[in-house]
Specification:
By secondary structure, the chain is α/β, with parallel strands linked by helices. Helix content is 34%, strand content 17%. The chain has a five-stranded parallel β-sheet with strand order 4-3-2-5-19, with helices on both faces. Helix 6 packs across helix 9. The longest helix has 20 residues.
C-alpha cells in the first residue's frame, strides 16, 4: 500500500494547513438557539404528518419540533432518541432532502422545507452535550445476546436490548465500534470525533460489552455464539467490494473508495494523506460522492466521477451531486470502464458511452488518472452464515433468519439500503422481536 500511495503523481501536503481545516469543517454548522426557534416556528405541526411517514425510524417529527418551539430541547431529544438512538448521527448524514424534508408541506407549497434534520441535530446535541442519557436500564433479565457488527444496526439493537434488561456482547472485526458511521462517511459530515462520542454516550445505558477484532468465521462462529447466548443478531454490513471487471483493474493505485474513506477518517493529520493530481471515482452512490469530494478537498487537481447511468438514477441524492459539483468534481454519466491503462501504475482509464439500457455505443474516450477509486457497491463477505437471498442474508419482516434464534438487520439483509437511519430501524425492531421471544411477551 505504501508503494501504491506514493507512486509518481501522488503526494501529500498539497495544500496549506488552513485549507484542510476549512475544507473538512462541519458541512452544516449547527443552528443557534434563535435559528432553531425560527425554524421550529415554520412547522405546521400537521396531523398525519407526511414527514413522519417518510422517516424510516418513525420519529414523531411534529412533536419534537413543537417541544423545541416551547423551549424544551431535551424533551425533543428524548422523543427523537426513543425511536432512533443514533439520532445525532442521522441528523448529520441522513439524506433528509429525499426523506422527511422532501414531503414537508412547506417544501410542497413554497419549495423551502422546515430544516428537520438540523432541528434534530439541535435537540440531540443539546442533550448529549450535557452528558445525559435519557433512558434507564430495566431490571436484569438474565438473558444474554450476541450482536455481531458494531455498525448502526448492531448498536441500535444492542442499546434497545440493554435498555430492556438483557446483557449484550457486541463482536466486531474492527478495532473501534461505529461501523459505517466511524469508517465509511465523509469526514466533513462528522467532524471532531462525533461518531465515537455518540457511541460512548450510547454505551452509558450499561449492560453492553464490546469485543473488538472478532470477525465471524475467523475468530468466532455462529454455532459457538448460539451456544453461549440466548439469541444472536447479525449486523455485519457489507465488507466485500465489487470488482470493475475491466482490463487492468489490478494496476497500482486502483483502490476501493471505502478503504480510502476509512483511512482518511482514522487519520490524525489530513496533510499527511497522499492524493493524486488526476483522480477518477467510478460509481454513483454516497460513497462515490464522499470519495470524490474528499479527494478534491485533499488537493487533487482534477477529480472526475463516472457513472454508468443517468444522474436521475444515481443513489447519491441531488444535494450530494450538487455538493460534488460545487467542490469542482466533474460528473460524467452513461459511461462504463473498459480498460485501465498504464505501465504498472494507472495512467489512463478508457470508457465507453452506453445508452439507457446499458448497450454500448461504440464511442470511447480516455481520462488521465494517477489514482482510481472504485465505488460500485459492496457485497456480503464471510462464511458461516444463515441462508441467503441472492447475496444477502434472508430475513422475514421481524428480522428472523433461517437459523432458529438468529436475527439479522442492516445492509447485510435485502431490506438494507445503505442508509444509517434504515439500519437503525431494523436493529431496533429486531431487538423488540428478540425481547418478545426471550420473555414470552
Amino acid at each position: 500500500m505504501a508503494r501504491d500511495m506514493f507512486a509518481p503523481g501522488i503526494a501529500a501536503g498539497r495544500l496549506e494547513p488552513e485549507a484542510y481545516r476549512e475544507g473538512f469543517s462541519d458541512l452544516h454548522p449547527p443552528l443557534d438557539d434563535h435559528e432553531a426557534l425560527v425554524q421550529a416556528d415554520r412547522c405546521y405541526f400537521c396531523h398525519d404528518a407526511p414527514c413522519m411517514t417518510a422517516c424510516p425510524t418513525d420519529i414523531d417529527i411534529p412533536l419534537f419540533i413543537r417541544q423545541i418551539a416551547t423551549g424544551t430541547p431535551d424533551a425533543a431529544a428524548k422523543t427523537i432518541l426513543s425511536q432512533n438512538i443514533l439520532g445525532g448521527m442521522c441528523a448529520r448524514v441522513c439524506p433528509t432532502e429525499t426523506l422527511c424534508e422532501e414531503v414537508c408541506v412547506r417544501e410542497v407549497a413554497e419549495g423551502k422545507p422546515v430544516l428537520i434534520g438540523q432541528l434534530q441535530r439541535y435537540a440531540t446535541d443539546h442533550l448529549q452535550a450535557q452528558g445525559k442519557h435519557p433512558f434507564t436500564r430495566a431490571a436484569a433479565t438474565g438473558k444474554t445476546i450476541a450482536v455481531v457488527g458494531a455498525g448502526p444496526a448492531g448498536l441500535s439493537c444492542a442499546h434497545r436490548l440493554a435498555m430492556l434488561g438483557h446483557d449484550v456482547t457486541i463482536y466486531d472485526a474492527r478495532p473501534k465500534p461505529g461501523g459505517l458511521n466511524e469508517y465509511g462517511i465523509a469526514a466533513y459530515k462528522t467532524p471532531e470525533g462525533f461518531a465515537q462520542a455518540e457511541v460512548d454516550w450510547l454505551m452509558q445505558i450499561g449492560g453492553i460489552t464490546f469485543r473488538h477484532d472478532a470477525a465471524l468465521g475467523r475468530d468466532i462462529t455462529l454455532a459457538a455464539l448460539k451456544k453461549d447466548h440466548d439469541a444472536v443478531f447479525l449486523g455485519l454490513g457489507l465488507a466485500g467490494v465489487n470488482a470493475l471487471g475491466a482490463e487492468g483493474e489490478d494496476k497500482d493505485n486502483v483502490t476501493n473508495a471505502v478503504d480510502f474513506i476509512a483511512g482518511l477518517r482514522q487519520s490524525d493529520d489530513l496533510s499527511g494523506l497522499p492524493i493524486g493530481r488526476d483522480v477518477v471515482v467510478i460509481g454513483g452512490g454516497m460513497t462515490a460522492v464522499d470519495a470524490a469530494v474528499q479527494a478534491k478537498l485533499l488537493g487533487a487537481l482534477n477529480v472526475t466521477l463516472v457513472y454508468r447511468r443517468g444522474r436521475d438514477r444515481m443513489n447519491a441524492s441531488r444535494f450530494e451531486q450538487d455538493l460534488a459539483a460545487s467542490k469542482g468534481v466533474r460528473i460524467i454519466t452513461h459511461a462504463v470502464p473498459l480498460a485501465i491503462h498504464g505501465n504498472g501504475s494507472v495512467r489512463e482509464i478508457e470508457f465507453e458511452y452506453v445508452d439507457a439500457d446499458m448497450r454500448g455505443s461504440g464511442e470511447t474516450f480516455r481520462i488521465p488518472a494517477d489514482q482510481v477509486f472504485k465505488a460500485i457497491g459492496q457485497t456480503l463477505h464471510g462464511d458461516d452464515l444463515p441462508d441467503l437471498d441472492g447475496r444477502k442474508i434472508r430475513t422475514d419482516a421481524a428480522g428472523r433468519t433461517s437459523v432458529e434464534g438468529v436475527w439479522a438487520g442492516g445492509d447485510c439483509t435485502p431490506a438494507g439500503d445503505d442508509l444509517t437511519v434504515t439500519a437503525v430501524a431494523q436493529g431496533r425492531d429486531a431487538a423488540m422481536d428478540i425481547h418478545r421471544q426471550l420473555t414470552g411477551g
